[in-house]
């Protein structure tokens, strides 16, 4: 992605943030990236400037940037959602539509919808361990009321350590917008596991981890007074219901 940013004369951080559903460390042949135009490249952490493209709808724009249609309308005085024009420049607030709750609609690092179909799950993707020893399922994997696919959210009443669901290599261990500290582990047969809302990280990028190895301490969510772990599984970048893989 750094080479693409350099060739397009776009700051790397800007390109990454303009493609919130793309893992910049694992691009696929044929994968499509959205390049910001000159008018869209405003610096800063405020609302994004976005230029309407062919086929865009208010809902598709909001879903792409992880916000809500209502949030987009609120950020654009006089915007008519039914009359978007190609080339029109609008403001797009980032995140969960200003709800203030990171657990309500945050999504884990996601691969682009343009990724090729990786095929059926490999035989190795079975009987993996759950990432927490004592937990409740606060939200199951699946689509919310708006049709947006949400990863699984686990909760505990007391501090807990998230553990690797299967053996693999840590490819990312750092902070990520809205998700706190995040760990991404790559496993055999093009499988990935994601652990978000981490507090203290217990691994570093490049580490080889065994199944059950400590990954991070999960963090406290003030709005629920519980400890949360956002857990996501991917096959070739495509979301997988953890219930199909975990024992």
UniProtKB/TrEMBL annotation:
Pfam families, alphabetized: LysM, Peptidase_M23
Organism: Salinicola rhizosphaerae
Composition-biased stretches (Low complexity): 101-112
Protein name: LysM domain-containing protein
All copies of domain LysM, residue ranges: 48-92
SUPFAM superfamilies for this protein: Duplicated hybrid motif (SSF51261), LysM domain (SSF54106)
InterPro entries assigned to the protein according to its UniProt record, in alphabetical order: Cell_wall_metabolism_enzyme, Dup_hybrid_motif, LysM, LysM_dom_sf, M23ase_b-sheet_dom
Ranges for region Disordered: 95-124
PANTHER family in the record: MUREIN HYDROLASE ACTIVATOR ENVC (PTHR21666:SF270), PEPTIDASE-RELATED (PTHR21666)
């Amino acid at each position: 992605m750094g080479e693409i940013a350099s060739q397009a004369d776009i700051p790397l951080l800007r390109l990454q943030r303009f493609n919130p559903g793309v893992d910049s460390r694992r691009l696929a042949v044929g994968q499509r990236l959205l390049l910001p135009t000159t008018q869209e490249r405003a610096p800063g952490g405020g609302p994004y400037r976005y230029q309407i493209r062919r086929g865009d709808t208010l809902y598709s724009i909001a879903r792409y940037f992880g916000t809500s249609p209502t949030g987009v309308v609120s950020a654009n005085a006089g915007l008519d959602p039914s009359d978007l024009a190609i080339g029109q420049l609008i403001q797009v607030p980032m995140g969960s539509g200003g709800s203030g709750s990171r657990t309500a609609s945050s999504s884990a690092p996601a691969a682009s919808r343009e990724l090729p179909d990786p095929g059926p799950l490999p035989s190795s993707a079975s009987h993996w361990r759950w990432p927490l020893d004592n937990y409740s399922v606060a939200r199951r994997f699946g689509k919310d009321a708006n049709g947006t696919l949400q990863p699984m959210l686990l909760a505990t009443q007391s501090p807990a350590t998230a553990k690797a669901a299967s053996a693999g290599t840590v490819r990312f261990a750092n902070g990520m917008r809205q998700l706190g500290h995040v760990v991404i582990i790559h496993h055999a047969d093009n499988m990935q596991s994601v652990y978000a809302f981490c507090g203290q990280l217990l691994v570093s990028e490049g580490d080889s981890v065994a199944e059950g190895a400590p990954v991070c301490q999960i963090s406290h969510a003030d709005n629920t007074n519980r400890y949360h772990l956002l857990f996501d599984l991917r096959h070739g970048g495509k979301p997988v219901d953890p219930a199909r893989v975990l024992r």
